[in-house]
Structures are given as structure tokens and as C-alpha cells.
Amino acid sequence: MNLLFMGPPGSGKGTQSKLLCDRYSIVHLSTGDMFREAITNKTEVGMRAKSYMDKGELVPDQVVIDLIRAKVTSLSGKGFILDGFPRTVPQAIALEDLLSGLGLKLDGVFFFDVQKEILVNRLSARRTCRKCNQVVSADDVSKAKCAVNSDGCDFYQRDDDKPEVIAKRIQVYQDQTSPMIEYYKSNPNFLKIDGTQPADQVFQVILNKIS
Ligand code: AP5
After folding, report:
1. Would residue 169 show up in a list of annotated catalytic residues for this protein?
2. Domain assignment present for 21
3. Does 87 participate in catalysis according to the annotation?
4. Residue 67 lies in a domain
5. Are residues 84 and 176 in contact, defined by beta-carbon separation less than 8 angstroms?
6. Does residue 57 lie within any of the structural domains?
7. How far is the CA of 44 from the centre of ligand 1 (A)?
8. Residue 12 CA, ligand 1 centroid: distance in Å
9. Cα 181 to averaged position of ligand 1 atoms, centre (Å)
């Protein structure tokens, strides 16, 4: 099963990817997570990506395409969820070439529709655990249990979840990524989901479609 999750920043792509990967043992391919890991490891790709991410801009297409090509090719046919890629029409065309070259196709394209005001609230409140990567809203930090450390979670706020960068990311999404909705609408497996529903209800909609 190969899926594509698309939608604006904060629409729930990462949250739903994690739920589905736990359920089906498929691989979560998040380009944002890959870049954050590369930044932590201070690799050349990471340092290059950071200069764009800090400003809320997109990393150049060719850098992202090369990264995804290497990851998808290394999966040897194992199912995956693409989260945050493609984000431009040239990236979508490169993905089509890559998948057809590997004899693969997308079995589902899910678009999470969420209004701007809700996105801003969610992103401003998002906290991520340094140890287990769990993502929660600031209101839920005290209730969170760490999946890898009995001392509890160590939450931080992403640099690009600061107000001025959030506004830029949403603008970049509207200008450069939203045209992809038209690109994928004709795919018979395209589904627009109301991403403002509680996360467990969104998950149920995805499960129903997959089944
Ligand atoms: P990336 O990390 O991909 O960020 P993003 O697409 O902006 O998406 P987010 O991770 O912010 O949001 P999400 O939809 O996953 O929401 P989440 O589930 O966390 O990319 C970061 C940067 O990397 C980009 O800006 C760019 O510079 C670069 N980059 C990455 N890919 C690239 C590409 N292909 N090309 C070029 N550059 C690229 O949820 C958010 C919050 O809401 C959480 O707190 C969560 O708990 C909460 N929440 C989730 N669902 C619900 C719900 N249903 N109800 C209530 N709360 C919810």
C-alpha cells in the first residue's frame, strides 16, 4: 500500500501518518523529518535545507527529489506514506516518473482540508518530544507519556512554528503547493477529508477508504 498525504502545514499529515504506520507496518516518509534529522546530524543536505526551513520557504526541488528517490528505491517494494512530498508540480512529475520506473503506483491520495485560523492555532501550540518524537498540543504536555524513556518526555517547539514563520509557510503552501490539488484531483484514489474533525475521526475516514 503506497499512500500520499497532502495538505497545509498543521493539517494533521504527520499525526495520521504515525497512526496508520503503527496499524499497517508501512514506512513513514516525511521529508520534513528527514531534513530535521539531517540538520541534527549537521550533514551538507541538512545545512542547505536549514537556510530555507528557518525562513518557511521550500527547499529546492532537486534536493528533495534526490532525497526521496534514494529512500523509495531503498524500500524494495515495502509500502509507504509520503508526507510532505511532493509539494510542487515539478516534484509531482518527478514522483510519477520514479514510481512508474519502479512499477509502483499510489493507492490513495488524501487531502486534509483545514482552514487557516485553525492551522495557526495548531502550529503555535504544537510541541514535539526530543526522545520519542511524539507530537502533542501544548495543553496535553503534562498528560503525555514518553514511549522510550521512563523519566518522561522532553518537549520543544519547532523553530518554524514561531508566528512569523507559520504565516510564511501558509503563504508558501497557498502559492506553490495548493496547485497540486488540481494535479491530483483526477486520480481515482483522491479523497478530500475534513481535517478539522478530531484526529480519531479523521483516522476512521482513512481506514474506511483503505478498506
Ligand atoms: P514539514 O515538516 O513537512 O512541515 P509541514 O508540511 O509544514 O507540516 P507540519 O509537520 O507542520 O504539519 P502536519 O500536517 O504534519 O501536522 P501535525 O500532524 O504535526 O516541512 C517543514 C519544512 O521542510 C518546510 O517548510 C520546507 O522548508 C521543508 N520541506 C519539507 N518537505 C519539502 C518538500 N517536499 N519540498 C520543499 N521543501 C520541503 O499536526 C499539527 C498539530 O495539530 C499537532 O500539535 C497535532 O497534535 C495537532 N493535530 C493534528 N491533527 C489534529 C486534529 N484532527 N484535531 C486537532 N489537533 C490536531
Report:
1. yes
2. yes
3. yes
4. yes
5. no
6. yes
7. 23
8. 7
9. 17
Distance in angstroms (rounded) separating the CA atoms of residues 68 and 145: 32
69 is catalytic: no
Task: Indicate yes or no: pTM above 0.85.
Answer: yes
36 flagged as catalytic: no
Helix axis angle for 44-53 and 31-40, nearest 10°, is 120
More confident: 150 or 90: 90
Q: What is the CATH number of the domain that holds 50?
A: 3.40.50.300
- Residue 120 pLDDT > 90, yes or no? yes
Q: Which residues line ligand 1 (CB under 6 A)?
A: 7, 9-15, 30-32, 35, 52-53, 56-59, 64, 84-85, 87, 91, 122, 126, 135-137, 160, 169, 195, 198-199, 202
- How many independent structural domains does the chain possess? 1
Active site residue 168: no
Exposed, middle or buried: residue 74 (CB in 10 Å: 0-12, 13-18, 19+)?
A: exposed
Domain boundaries, position 43? 2-114+177-210
**12-64 per-position pLDDT tens digit:** 999 999 999 999 989 999 999 999 999 999 999 999 999 999 999 999 999 99
> Cell numbers of 183, please?
494535479
Q: Chain-wide mean pLDDT for the chain?
A: 95
- Sequence-distant (≥ 6) Cβ neighbours of residue 174 within 8 angstroms: 8
- Establish if 172 belongs to a structural domain: no
Mean pLDDT of the region 113-123: 98
pLDDT (tens digit, 9 = 90+) per residue, 37-49? 999 999 999 999 9
Ligand 1 centre and the CA of 199: distance in Å?
14
